[in-house]
Amino acid sequence: MFSKKTLQLHIDHPEGAGRLRRTLLALILSIALPTIMLTVFVATPSSASAFLFFGERPTKDAAYYLNKGDIHLERTGGFIWRPLAISEFQKALILSNTVVDAKRSQLGIADGYIRNKEYANAISAYQVYLEFYRLDYDSPEVIYNLAYAYHKLYKGKGRRVDYQQQALIAFGELKKTYPEYYMNSNASELETISTNRILDAEIHVGELYVRHKDYDAAVRRLEGTYDAFPNSKSLPEAQFTLAKAYYKLGNRKEYDKTLNNLQKLYQENNADGGNTRIEKKYMKKAAKLWKAQ
Description:
- The structure is a single chain.
- The chain is mostly helical.
- Helices cover about 80% and strands about 0% of the residues.
- The longest helix is centred in the first third of the chain and has 30 residues.
- The radius of gyration is 30 Å and the shape is elongated.
């Protein structure tokens, strides 16, 4: 061990001071470097971080890593293997010398992300694929997966409905360009759910405006919902909230029009043999607002 006096001699002497600095630097590096390497590896499980942590370099060709990625992607216990598959496809993309290999690599990365439920990363990867590698005959599943990723990014009423709007755009493209694929998948069902989520968000905001007595703002938010969401299960609630705002504003004409919309919904669903209880419920609630009708 160094005594205080010995340490001071090392500091005072030029050569001793240099040796001490080198010792301290080595000590710092021995602690900091493994920490940095671990952080990089955890944050970016790519070929670069694999090289830092394991000394592994992507020395094979793209076909080798594409094959490894395909194998990892289909293995059981996917939550373990999917990140490795993504890493292999990333290596293949770096080493790709042909458009075919680059295309396969990019699609593998996107598929790995969506299977791993990393929907935001999947969206970015599919967008790159569609921009640079899209061919008409192989795009239906990609467009569906893009729409599905947007659909899954839902955080509850009033939050991030822009993702649901993007989902509707992608489902709309799928329906228009590949109608057979659209009909043979559950795209229609998911599209309906995304539509309901958007209207639910609008209702949520409209109700907040009514609660804060900003009835004009509630009207602006909800007055177009009857035409924009004709098939949504949440439409009766939207019309009731709108009727309530018109009642608070004393606008009997628009209130009657909104109540009439509810009656139309009831009659249409009754004729189709649909569930009319929701329309009936909100018709009664709306009718009670104005007693003299």
